[in-house]
Specification:
mainly alpha
């Protein structure tokens, strides 16, 4: 994640508000995604089911644009080697981990742990691999995030009756943060275009779906069509295509640093939507941990990345 820079010119008039709207809407979509993933469990869908629906729906939407933009098709300027590496990081296995975590932990856990730990994992990897040392403000923010995530996960790690088994989902969300951090660093190092990466990884994921269907339980034939349509539409079309476009527009208008400041909204949206739609209420400990994690995210995002 890139720090906010005072040298970036301020967009004027309607474009400024358009950038705000795109960033907020993308965060809203990602916030509700955890709730939709959690709903798939109640509807009887497996992690493989949701992964298959996600990549099939997203690929169908993105295919016409990919045919025009990706030269050579389907990897574009990334090339086959880099595109396959990125697909291995955020393709079907990533989606299966995300939805699999929802089988064990409440929706809010996904929205706090993964987004909270992504900047921490990214900073640590950049420090040890790329020798990019975080500045004091960034380190302070990352410390607050770790404290918040630790407090938030206390009940799950303690396997309390209200969060029995949730620690398994929490560990999967930690792994997701690590995978996304590696992906982000590689994409930045290779100068990868966000839209082209999304198109290439979605399309390259499709041939892997039959393998997943053979290796993992598939319940699509026994689930209501409405539940299938919900996951295909939301996970594939809205998250896979629309959210990417909106966030890319926010970055283009506001800059990467300002656009990233919308990300702390994700757990807030999940907390509200999870309570309203699923009846999942955070405990006082989880609420305090979430507040700390969000505070740390804001501090880290607003601080310089290198001392």
């Amino acid at each position: 994640m890139t720090a906010t820079s005072p040298s970036i010119p301020q967009p004027a008039g309607g474009r400024l508000w358009l950038g705000f709207a795109c960033g907020a809407l993308a965060s809203l979509i990602w916030g509700v995604q955890s709730v939709v993933s959690r709903q798939s469990v109640a509807d009887g869908l497996s992690a493989a089911d949701v992964t298959i629906l996600r990549f099939l729906a997203a690929s169908l939407v993105l295919l016409p644009f990919a045919l025009k933009r990706l030269k050579p098709f389907p990897v574009g300027r990334l090339g086959w080697k880099r595109a396959l590496i990125l697909t291995a990081l955020i393709g079907p296995s990533y989606s299966a981990l995300l939805v699999g975590g929802a089988h064990f932990a409440p929706a809010l856990h996904s929205a706090v742990i993964s987004p909270g730990l992504i900047p921490v994992c990214t900073a640590l990897l950049a420090w040890f691999v790329l020798a990019e040392r975080p500045g004091p403000g960034r380190l302070a923010g990352l410390g607050v995030i770790l404290l918040g995530v630790g407090l938030f996960s206390l009940e799950a790690l303690g396997n309390t009756p209200t969060r029995e088994g949730a620690w398994i989902g929490d560990l999967l969300f930690v792994l997701i943060a690590l995978l996304w951090s590696i992906f982000g660093l590689l994409a930045r190092r290779w100068g990868a275009d966000a839209i082209e990466v999304t198109m290439a990884t979605c399309l390259l994921s499709v041939p892997l779906l039959p393998i997943m269907a053979l290796a993992m339980p598939v319940n699509l034939g026994h689930v209501a069509w409405g539940a299938i349509a919900l996951q295909a539409l939301y996970q594939g079309v809205i998250v896979g295509a629309a959210a990417l476009f909106l966030y890319t527009q926010a970055v283009a208008i506001l800059g990467a640093g300002r656009a990233a400041l919308f990300l702390p909204l994700v757990p807030v949206v999940t907390a509200i939507s999870g309570t309203l739609l699923l009846g999942e209420k955070a405990s006082l400990t989880e609420t305090a941990g979430m507040a700390l994690a969000i505070t740390g995210m804001v501090i880290a995002l607003r601080s310089k990345s290198v001392a």
